[in-house]
C-alpha cells in the first residue's frame, strides 16, 4: 500500500511465509528497519495521514506507550525468513564488512581506506564488503575495495524484492561480521549467532564515518557493551542472540494462518482498498519512491538537524 512496504524485500518474505504467490498489497505499514527506542522517536510515530485506521506492523511492542498509532507486533520478516531457510545449508567463510551507508534520502561519508586497513589488520580473510546500492554507484569506492582484494556484495536497490534474501545469504555465508556502526544487519548477525564486532574508530581514535543522529547516540550511550570490541566468545554470542531475539520480536512470531488474518490477507475489501490507495499514492509521489533503481544524480532530502548531524571530528578522507 504505502511505499515503504515495498522496501528491502520484507513483504515478499511475509507473503512467501503465508504461502501466497500473488503480489498482494498490505493494508497498513510494515516496519522495515531497527528503531533505537529513543523515547522522542517513539512518541513521534503517528498514523498515516491518508488512513489513520491502517495499522503499523511492528517487530515488537516498542510502540505500546504511543496511543497515536495502532501498532500490532508481528515479529521481524527476518525471523520468518530464517524459518523458511531452516533446511538450507551455508558455508561460512571469511570476514564480511558492513560500512556505514548512505540512503536515497540521507548521505553518509565513510573513510573507506582507513576502514579497509583496520579490517585487514584485525580480522582474517577472505574479505568481503556489503555496499548499499547508493554507495555501490560510486566507482571510486568500488575500485578501492577491489584494489584491496575485497569481494563486493550488494543486496540490490531497496525496492529489490530479493533484498532481504540476499542479506541473509551474505551473512550466513560469513564467519565474522564487522560493522562501522550498529545497524539493522547487526541484529541479523546476532540472531544467526555470528561472531561480530562494531568498531566506529581506528586505533588512533579516528572515526570511520562522518554523520550520526541523536537516536543512535542515545542507543550507544545506553548499550556500551556492544561497541569497540570483538564479540566472539560463546557468552557474547549467546547474549547477542538474546538481545536480537527480543528486538526482532521472536516472541511475537505468528503461525501462518494467524499472520494472514492479522494482515487481512484474506479480506478482499481491504485488499481492493489497498490497491486503490497504492494507485493514488504512486500518482502523488511517483513509483520511484518504492525503491526503483537510482542513478548518480538522485536527490536527497534536506537534513533534519534535530536528528541528523555531523560528528565532532577532523578527518580529511571521506567519500
Tags for this entry?
globular; 12 helices; 11 strands; Rossmann fold; 2 domains; disordered C terminus; three-stranded parallel sheet; six-stranded mixed sheet; alpha/beta; single chain; 319 residues; 35% helix
Write the layout of secondary structure elements.
Elements: H1 10-17, E1 29-30, H2 39-44, E2 56-58, E3 71-73, H3 77-84, E4 95-98, H4 112-122, E5 127-130, H5 133-136, H6 139-147, E6 150-153, H7 163-172, E7 176-179, H8 184-191, E8 195-198, E9 211-213, H9 214-222, E10 230-231, H10 234-247, H11 256-262, H12 268-285, E11 308-310
Parallel strand pairs: 1-2, 2-3, 4-5, 4-7, 5-6, 7-8
Antiparallel strand pairs: 8-10, 9-11
Q: Averaged pLDDT, please? A: 85
SSE ordering: HEHEEHEHEHHEHEHEEHEHHHE
Pairing-aware structural class of the strands and helices? alpha/beta
Strand content: 5-15%
Mind describing the biggest β-sheet? 6 strands, mixed
Structure description:
- By secondary structure, this protein is an alpha/beta fold.
- It has 2 domains: 3-82 and 253-290, no CATH class; 88-247, 3-Layer(aba) Sandwich (Rossmann fold).
- 35% of the residues lie in helices and 11% in strands.
- It contains 12 helices and 11 strands.
- The strands form 3 sheets. Strands 6-5-4-7-8-10 form a 6-stranded mixed sheet, with helices on both faces. A 3-stranded parallel sheet has the order 1-2-3, with no helix packed on it.
- β7, α8 and β8 form a beta-alpha-beta unit.
- The longest helix is centred in the C-terminal third of the chain and has 18 residues, at 268-285.
- It is globular, with a radius of gyration of 20 Å.
Amino acid at each position: 500500500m504505502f511505499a515503504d512496504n515495498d522496501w528491502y524485500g520484507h513483504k515478499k518474505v511475509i507473503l512467501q511465509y503465508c504461502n501466497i504467490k500473488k503480489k498482494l498489497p498490505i493494508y497498513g505499514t510494515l516496519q522495515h528497519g531497527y528503531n533505537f527506542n529513543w523515547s522522542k522517536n517513539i512518541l513521534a510515530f503517528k498514523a498515516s495521514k491518508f488512513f489513520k485506521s491502517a495499522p503499523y506492523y511492528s517487530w515488537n511492542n516498542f510502540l505500546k506507550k504511543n496511543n497515536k498509532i495502532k501498532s500490532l507486533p508481528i515479529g521481524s520478516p527476518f525471523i520468518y525468513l530464517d524459518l523458511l531457510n531452516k533446511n538450507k545449508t551455508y558455508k561460512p567463510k571469511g570476514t564480511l564488512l558492513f560500512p556505514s551507508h548512505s540512503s536515497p534520502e540521507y548521505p553518509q561519508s565513510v573513510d573507506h581506506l582507513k576502514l579497509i586497513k583496520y579490517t585487514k589488520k584485525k580480522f582474517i580473510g577472505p574479505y568481503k564488503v556489503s555496499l548499499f546500492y547508493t554507495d555501490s554507484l560510486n566507482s571510486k569506492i568500488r575500485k578501492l575495495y577491489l584494489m584491496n582484494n575485497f569481494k563486493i556484495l550488494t543486496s540490490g536497490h531497496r525496492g529489490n524484492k530479493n533484498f532481504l534474501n540476499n542479506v541473509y545469504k551474505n551473512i550466513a555465508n560469513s564467519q565474522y561480521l564487522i560493522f562501522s556502526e550498529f545497524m539493522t544487519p547487526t541484529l541479523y548477525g546476532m540472531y544467526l549467532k555470528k561472531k561480530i564486532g562494531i568498531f566506529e574508530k581506528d586505533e588512533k581514535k579516528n572515526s570511520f564515518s562522518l554523520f550520526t543522529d541523536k537516536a543512535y547516540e542515545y542507543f550507544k550511550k545506553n548499550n556500551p557493551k556492544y561497541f569497540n570490541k570483538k564479540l566472539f566468545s560463546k557468552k557474547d554470542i549467546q547474549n547477542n542472540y538474546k538481545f536480537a531475539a527480543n528486538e526482532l520480536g521472536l516472541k511475537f512470531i505468528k503461525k501462518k494462518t494467524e499472520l494472514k488474518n492479522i494482515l487481512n490477507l484474506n479480506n478482499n475489501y481491504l485488499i481492493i482498498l489497498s490497491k486503490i490507495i497504492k494507485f493514488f499514492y504512486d500518482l502523488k509521489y511517483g513509483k520511484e519512491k518504492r525503491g526503483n533503481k537510482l542513478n548518480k544524480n538522485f536527490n536527497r532530502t534536506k537534513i533534519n538537524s534535530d536528528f541528523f548531524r555531523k560528528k565532532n571530528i577532523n578527518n580529511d578522507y571521506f567519500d
